[in-house]
Amino acid sequence: VEPPEAYNVGGDYVCKLRKGLYDLKQSAKTWHDQLTKDLEKKGFQELKKDPCIYTKSGVILLVYVDDILILGKEADVDKAKTNLAELYEIKDLAEARFYLGIEIIRGRRTRQIVLSQQRYIQQVVRRFGMKECKPVKTSAQGKSRCETTIPATMPEEVQYRELVGCLMFIATRTRPDILCAVRSLSAHLHDYTAEDWRAAKRVLRYLKGTEDATLSLGDETKPEKIEVYTDASWADSENRRSMTGVCVYLHGALVIYYSRRQKSVKTSSSEAEYVAVAEGFKSLRRLQQL
After folding, report:
1. Most confident of 14-23, 160-169, 189-198
2. Where in the chain is the domain with CATH 3.30.310?
3. Do residues 107 and 114 lie in contact, with contact meaning Cβ atoms separated by under 8 Å?
4. Res 98: pLDDT
5. For the chain, where are the alpha helices, taking DSSP H only?
6. Looking at residue 147, what is its pLDDT?
7. What share of the chain is helix, strand, coil (3-state, %, to 5)?
8. Which of 17, 178, 219, 231 is deepest in the core (most CB within 10 A)?
9. CATH class of the domain defined by 218-289
């Protein structure tokens, strides 16, 4: 880095960093390496298939930067908190109610955990001036971009990228019902038009009418097994690349889902379906190895 203004070293010199500084591109990796080293000293083991999960004798740590969610029995959780307090200055927020903007609702009688982003959706609706908008029943109109008349490019002051980013955060956390629509919007972040802007606001109108929808995890009435569902939409876009959709259920709870464009053009619907099945098996295998 360049020397501070008050520090005159003379000549064309720079300073060599001996520690990571906040907001540098390597800072996240430096912090993760240090955290892993410290947790290993306390007996925690990092999962090979997910480097943000650590385990130790029945306790699971879920790590997002410096926000840590601890899962386990009460006595084991208390021990884990003590271990962390010996390493860092921590802030204990007691039982988890919110984590990364997601509300956690525990149904102890039904042994279910319900995830909700209702408050976050309300914040996004207010942020983009849609509080008084009229809700709609679907997140998209069913037309692809190439089937509509593309109007002139929108001006820079339109917050299209910001809105799509908020919608993507919602879609990939608790709302798989908007994932396909948001994926389509995210494909035009550099060439968005008035049609795309209206489509993005339509998703927001749909969320306003369904803000109380939740994602439930755990159901004792469901069989204890993993179920994988895949589908493909063959050559349904202007570039003729097919779409893959995957849903993975664990004990009846949706734990993995995504919708993405296939990497190459497929010559038949059967080929596209086989690719989707292969992607589904990859997700299944990853879940089995956790």
Report:
1. 160-169
2. 27-99
3. yes
4. 92
5. 27-41, 74-87, 118-127, 160-173, 179-186, 194-209, 269-289
6. 46
7. 35, 20, 45
8. 178
9. alpha beta
